[in-house]
């Protein structure tokens, strides 16, 4: 069989269509974020280095979860093909797949550039792709240097380390060479060729079919020759304690349940990290370091997606515990508790970061562009307003100075419809005293603390005539200057966020468990699982085309959400009702999902519910 | 009270595949019941329903008088279960698997577990995935019997094992526990095993119980008649006779299985179809299985 035919039969190539879709979706989300950032920066095109991360992530996900470790199929070992032949074909297939995925990712960037009217088709992007392809080739060869005797490289600490090194190297090369000449790519490409030659010579004549966790694992674990000769385990360790491992029931049950493909023994850690990340994002914890972002609501479907995506794989080991006298309620709790705990911890961490960092919720910015000076007061979205029409109120200071409020239509398609406006900003250039009055109003609204316009002008503004032309000291560090400033009590954010995350997740989980019945086939179960995930993914990225079409405005949605939460915290009675309703809806959804779990009838052969090649079925 | 009581149980799989149809099986304490049937006959489904891992679509299931779906924990604590598919977690060490079972079964007998571990020569520090198929099955058996269950369910437990390992496995589990009055239901394709170990045989075919009888009765009261293929009697006519369980058409003639002793079969044939000299003889389980499965309409 020719190298080309073997290469085309390789899973790295055969699964390319699926991975291309994943890559395109992934890049779309990231480029959407860049587009948002660009819009915030007044439409300035980002430097080429901003595209390194989205492109790198595409190849990083593929190298982490794609069919990289599997060098051939077990059947191939029975064919008259040498291991060197299979190794070379697989390495080539992986490099080819990486190249095509990087190209697909770049195509998405170019498409977005077209939509946004940006020249992202520049030669710089092409050069970047070339650099990343060369670095990926080197990384692939380096990865294929692991466990040369194995038909499939087992997931061990050494493999994970090798993978991390490879991924970091690609990213580092991308960042270093982003602005360099394309010829620079010859360096990693040549290294890849030399390394491939060297490794190829070390590949044995045939791969081993039986691969264990580590090089010495099999030898350690298998009964020694003494056993085979009849010495027996009893002779080695007759003590009763020899049958005791020191592990508790719970640690073993969790070790069984949370050792599933694709993450194997790392499942619980990965799950906790991702769900906790969702919690941090939902708590708006990132606002401690970066200005408040409009995307917060997108993290609701994101977190639901993350949580649900793990539920399918977690059913993989239920067959081991199903015959044991462990109640289904206990098992269900064991599946749900780590998710809930990680979400709480993430939310708590975000809230804590926000509290410790004490960012200024009210900020005053001034910037000059093309001879014009813009000033604006930044407040949290909850303090912006939405008017039913484009007729927004004017802002009038106590001394009579009046200016229109800054505004923007909620939907670009309906410029006369509902309109977002800021009671703290005007597009006009007001007097310094008026600008200070606006800032003072914002401070009072957000913190409930009164600062006179005169104090603000004197402490923070650089004034020429009666206009603000700069900020004294370069910034307005309100919470440094006014230690007593603390935000007014907010609404029941945690209750609302938890309910909006947990209830859909539990309902979807409930739906998924209804497919675990003897009369329902495996195909129907898989279709349900992947369909639900697709819906959650649409929730994550669906806003991008809607925004582009002017149908949806993320900021408007966010304002409505935050104002609702704020209103729910206005009186103790409403607050109590909100918490009660949130708790009741979560408990009800939990009980519904649990009810379906109690009825689960597991198939004899479990499905993995994962697309990625990480962990053999028996691993 | 019966240990196992299945009444009018139906079960259906995806695509409308009927796995069990109107199955009635009861097992008393201390009985050893062999469950046989061709692949897809419904043996595993019956076992899984008895374990409470599947619910019946129709009918009632009681173990120790309890519903195994409702009182799952209480019922499973009294059962030992080994199946060909029910592999132990491959990444766990043997001692950890045993520890888990010890903690879940209040009646766990450490001395028995040690005895079995010694007998099977199991290395407690080995991971399950490093064991041979036979060794892994022995660990599963140890876990299933060391809590001295009142009911042992063995679903093709010896499948894939060599004859010596199979005999060792079955003798250990069945002899050991049955001496203590444990009821045992085991399925097997090896009818010699069933003949040697079981008191009673339940044969399933297409989800239905074809035979449910103790082995002594089977040996005494079942016979095979060989009838000439000269057109004097048809297959349908024979099947319509009372006691005829199946008829196979072979080149040498018709082979009819009757739930009657050989003498009774000869008399019946003479009276009803006028063939008084047809040879009738007792048959072994394996032959009976082939005649039954092959002789169904």
Descriptive overview:
The complex is a heterodimer of chains A (619) and B (297). With 619 residues, chain A is mainly alpha-helical. Chain A folds into three domains: 3-202, no CATH class; 250-357 and 491-598; 363-481, no CATH class. Helices cover 56% and strands 6% of the residues of chain A. Chain A is built from 24 helices and nine strands. In chain A, the strands form four sheets. In chain A, strands 3-7-6 form a three-stranded antiparallel β-sheet, covered by helices on one side. In chain A, strands 1-2 form a two-stranded antiparallel sheet. In chain A, strands 4-5 form a two-stranded antiparallel ribbon. The radius of gyration of chain A is 29 Å and the shape is globular. The relative contact order of chain A is 0.09. The model of chain B has no long low-confidence stretch (mean pLDDT 88). The longest helix of chain B has 16 residues, at 163-178. Chain B has two domains: 4-215, 3-Layer(aba) Sandwich (Rossmann fold), CATH 3.40.50.300; 222-294, Alpha-Beta Plaits, CATH 3.30.70. Chain B contains eleven helices and 13 strands. Chain B has helices at residues 43-51, 72-76, 94-104, 110-120, 133-145, 163-178, 191-197, 215-221, 235-239, 262-272, 285-294; strands at residues 4-13, 17-27, 32-36, 58-63, 79-83, 151-155, 183-187, 200-205, 208-214, 223-227, 244-250, 253-258, 280-282. The radius of gyration of chain B is 21 Å and the shape is elongated. Chain B has 297 residues and is of the alpha/beta class. Chains A and B meet through helix 9, helix 11 and helix 12 of A and strand 1, helix 1, helix 2, helix 3 and helix 4 of B.
Tally of contiguous helical segments of chain B: 11
Largest sheet of chain B: 6 strands, mixed
Strand line-up across the major sheet of chain A: 3-7-6
In one word, what is the shape of chain A?
A: globular
**Number of E-state strands of chain A:** 9
- Sheet/helix structural class of chain B: alpha/beta
The Rg value of chain B, from CA coordinates, equals 21 Å
- Number of helices, where a helix is a run of at least 4 consecutive DSSP H or I residues of chain A: 24
Number of strands of chain B: 13
- The low-pLDDT segments of chain A are 213-240, 615-619
């Amino acid at each position: 069989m020719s190298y080309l035919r073997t290469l085309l039969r390789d899973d790295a190539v055969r699964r390319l269509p699926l991975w291309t879709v994943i890559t395109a979706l992934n890049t779309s989300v990231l480029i959407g974020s860049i587009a948002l950032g660009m819009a915030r920066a007044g439409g300035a095109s980002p430097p080429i280095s901003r595209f390194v991360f989205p492109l790198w992530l595409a190849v990083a996900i593929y190298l982490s979860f794609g069919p990289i470790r599997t060098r051939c199929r077990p059947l191939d070992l029975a064919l008259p093909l040498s291991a060197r032949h299979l190794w070379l074909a697989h390495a080539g297939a992986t490099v080819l797949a990486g190249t095509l995925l990087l190209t697909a990712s770049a195509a998405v960037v170019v498409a977005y550039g077209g939509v946004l009217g940006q020249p992202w088709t520049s030669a710089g992007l092409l050069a970047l792709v070339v650099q990343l392809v060369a670095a990926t080739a080197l990384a692939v060869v380096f990865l294929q240097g692991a466990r040369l005797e194995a038909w499939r490289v087992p997931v061990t600490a050494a493999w994970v380390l090798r993978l991390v090194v490879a991924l970091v190297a690609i990213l580092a090369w991308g960042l270093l060479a982003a602005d360099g000449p394309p010829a620079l790519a010859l360096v990693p490409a040549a290294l890849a060729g030399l390394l491939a030659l060297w490794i190829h010579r070390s590949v044995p004549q045939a791969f081993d079919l039986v691969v264990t966790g580590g090089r010495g694992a099999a030898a350690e674990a298998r009964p020694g020759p003494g056993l085979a000769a009849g010495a027996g385990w009893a002779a080695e360790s007759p003590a009763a304690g020899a049958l005791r491992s020191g592990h508790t029931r719970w640690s073993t049950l969790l070790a069984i349940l949370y050792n599933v493909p694709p993450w194997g023994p790392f499942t619980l850690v990965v799950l906790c990290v991702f769900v906790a990340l969702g919690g941090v994002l939902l708590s708006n914890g990132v606002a401690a370091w970066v200005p408040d972002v409009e995307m917060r609501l997108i993290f609701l479907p994101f977190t639901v997606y993350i949580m649900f995506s793990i539920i399918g794989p977690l059913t993989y080991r239920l067959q081991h515990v199903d015959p044991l006298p462990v109640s289904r309620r206990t098992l269900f709790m064991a599946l749900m508790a780590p998710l809930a705990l990680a979400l709480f911890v993430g939310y708590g961490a975000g809230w804590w970061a926000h509290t410790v960092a004490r960012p200024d919720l009210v900020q005053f910015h001034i910037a000059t562009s093309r001879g014009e000076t813009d000033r604006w007061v930044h407040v949290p979205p909850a303090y912006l307003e939405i008017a039913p029409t484009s007729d927004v109120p004017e802002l009038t200071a106590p001394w009579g100075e009046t200016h229109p409020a800054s505004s923007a239509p909620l939907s670009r398609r309906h410029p006369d419809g509902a309109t977002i406006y800021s009671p703290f900003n005007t597009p006009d250039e007001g007097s310094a005293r008026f600008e200070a009055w606006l800032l003072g109003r914002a401070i009072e609204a957000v913190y409930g603390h009164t600062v006179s316009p005169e104090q603000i002008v004197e402490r923070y503004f650089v004034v020429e005539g009666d206009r603000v032309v700069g900020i004294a000291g370069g910034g307005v560090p309100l919470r440094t200057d006014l230690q007593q400033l603390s935000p007014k009590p907010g609404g029941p954010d945690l209750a609302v966020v938890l309910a909006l995350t947990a209830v859909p997740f539990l309902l979807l989980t409930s739906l998924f468990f209804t497919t675990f019945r003897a009369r329902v086939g495996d195909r129907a179960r898989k279709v349900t699982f992947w369909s639900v995930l697709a819906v959650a993914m649409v929730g994550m990225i669906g806003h991008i085309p809607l925004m582009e079409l002017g149908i949806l405005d993320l900021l408007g949605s966010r304002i409505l959400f935050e104002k609702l939460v704020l209103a729910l915290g206005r009186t103790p009675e409403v607050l109590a009702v909100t918490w009660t309703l949130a708790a009741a809806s979560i408990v009800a959804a939990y009980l519904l999902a649990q009810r379906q779990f109690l009825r689960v009838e597991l198939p004899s052969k479990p499905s993995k519910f994962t697309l990625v090649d990480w962990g053999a079925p028996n691993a | 009270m019966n240990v196992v009581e299945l009444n009018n149980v139906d079960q259906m799989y995806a695509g409308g595949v009927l796995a069990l149809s109107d199955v009635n099986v009861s097992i008393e304490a201390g009985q050893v019941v062999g469950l046989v049937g061709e692949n897809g006959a419904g043996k595993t489904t019956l076992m899984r329903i008895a374990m409470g891992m599947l619910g019946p679509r129709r009918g009632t299931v009681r173990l120790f008088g309890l519903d195994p779906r409702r009182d799952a924990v209480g019922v499973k604590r009294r059962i030992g279960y080994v199946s060909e598919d029910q592999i132990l977690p491959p990444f766990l060490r043997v001692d950890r698997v045993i520890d888990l079972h010890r903690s879940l079964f209040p009646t766990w007998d450490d001395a028995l577990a040690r005895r079995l571990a010694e007998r099977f020569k199991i290395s407690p520090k080995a991971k399950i995935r490093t064991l041979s198929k036979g060794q892994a099955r022995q660990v599963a058996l140890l876990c299933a019997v060391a809590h001295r269950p009142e009911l042992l369910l063995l679903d093709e437990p010896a499948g894939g094992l060599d004859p010596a390992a199979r005999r060792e496995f079955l003798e250990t589990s069945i002899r050991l526990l049955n001496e203590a009055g444990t009821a045992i239901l085991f399925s097997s394709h090896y009818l010699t095993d069933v003949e040697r170990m079981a008191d009673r045989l339940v044969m399933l075919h297409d989800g239905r119980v074809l035979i449910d009888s103790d082995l002594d009765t089977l040996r005494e009261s079942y016979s095979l008649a060989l009838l000439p293929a000269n057109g004097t009697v048809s297959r349908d006519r024979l099947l319509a006779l009372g006691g005829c369980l199946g008829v196979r058409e072979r080149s040498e003639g018709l082979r009819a299985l009757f739930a009657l002793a050989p003498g009774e079969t000869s008399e019946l044939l003479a009276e009803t179809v006028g063939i008084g000299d047809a040879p009738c003889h007792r048959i072994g389980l394996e032959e009976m299985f082939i005649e039954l499965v092959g002789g169904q309409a």
